[in-house]
UniProtKB/TrEMBL annotation:
Annotated organism of origin: Salicibibacter kimchii
Name this polypeptide is given: VOC family protein
Domain VOC per the UniProt entry, residue ranges: 10-126, 169-283
Gene3D superfamilies, per the entry: 2,3-Dihydroxybiphenyl 1,2-Dioxygenase, domain 1 (3.10.180.10)
Domain of life: Bacteria
SUPFAM superfamilies: Glyoxalase/Bleomycin resistance protein/Dihydroxybiphenyl dioxygenase
UniProt cross-references to InterPro entries, sorted A to Z: Glyas_Bleomycin-R_OHBP_Dase, Glyas_Fos-R_dOase_dom, VOC_core
Lineage: Bacteria, Bacillati, Bacillota, Bacilli, Bacillales
Signal peptide residue numbers: none
Length: 283
């Protein structure tokens, strides 16, 4: 999975806020298949390989209702190592009577669902990058029906679902934003991503190193939508991994040129995009 390693810039972690930690923990273990890496009274670090935290779940104090339309998380996306792993989790969802959405995006095959607080989750497997079609720096993607029987034919004899496979990583994140052009400036001129696909004037897909997308950005919650309140369920922050210190210094300078601020909190460089989506800049 070279698209999610240096020298590329990629998303590697998300922190989400929930109303009830115990309820969420049951969901993320029993339905999604995470294991616990670390746990306190108010937070849980979730892992697939027993070493790397992919998702932090944080208990809200005095939670407020989640607004119907706001910027913030659309979904975070867990990338499975093999198509056969997608077959295994489909069978698991069938056994658990879990309702999911699905799409064939040409570059990948995806399942969609939401946790008990409405935080969106995608679970997907990439098609081989040699099959992705590019023209003038843009990758062809679609929203076609998923051929579930063909995926299930990939199931290996003797294999069964035993939770997320160890090679699962954070494949990408997709965000609701308030203004697409302002957001594009921040992510391309500031963070250095490339636009690799557009969906009219409502959505952009951006990446590093010719991946089909490390980030999706859309205005489907409405142009000018307000930020999700701090006390509401949703995304608290996500983490971008940069190749090295030199790149981070350049990114910090470029982000500030876009008008955003960068602060250092407990040794971590932190910024927010124009819609208030909070970002940790790690190396």
């Amino acid at each position: 999975m070279g698209y999610h390693s240096k020298p590329n810039t990629f998303v590697e972690h998300v922190t989400i806020k929930v109303k009830n930690l115990e309820r969420s923990l049951h969901y993320y273990q029993e339905v999604i298949g995470f294991n616990i890496l670390e746990q306190t009274e108010t937070t849980v670090e979730l892992t697939a390989d027993g070493e790397t935290s992919l998702v932090t779940v944080e208990q809200l104090e005095n939670p407020a209702p989640k607004p119907g339309r706001a910027t913030g998380l659309y979904h975070f996306a867990l990338l499975l190592p093999r198509r056969a792993d997608l077959a295994n989790i489909i069978n698991h969802f069938i056994d658990k009577s879990v309702r999911v959405g699905s799409s064939d995006h040409w570059v990948s095959e995806s399942l969609y669902l939401s946790d008990p607080d409405g935080n969106g989750i995608e679970i997907y497997a990439d098609r081989d990058s040699s099959t992705w079609e590019w023209e003038n720096g843009q990758v062809a993607m679609a929203v076609d029906p998923l051929n579930v029987p063909d995926i299930l034919s990939e199931k290996k004899e003797g294999e069964s679902w035993e939770g997320l496979p160890a090679g699962t990583i954070m494949g990408h994140i997709h965000l609701h934003v308030a203004d697409l052009q302002e957001t594009k400036t921040f992510y391309t001129e500031g963070l250095g991503f490339d636009v690799v696909s557009k969906l009219g004037d409502q959505a952009l897909f951006i990446s590093s190193g010719d991946y089909h997308h490390h980030l999706g950005l859309n205005t489907w919650a409405g142009v000018g939508a307000p930020a999700t309140p701090d006390r509401s369920p949703g995304m608290k922050s996500y983490t971008i991994n940069l190749p090295d210190e030199e790149t981070r210094e350049r990114v910090v300078a470029n982000v500030e040129k876009t008008g955003a601020t960068v602060t250092k909190e407990n040794g971590v460089f932190v910024t927010s995009d124009p819609s208030g989506n909070r970002i940790h800049l790690m190396i």
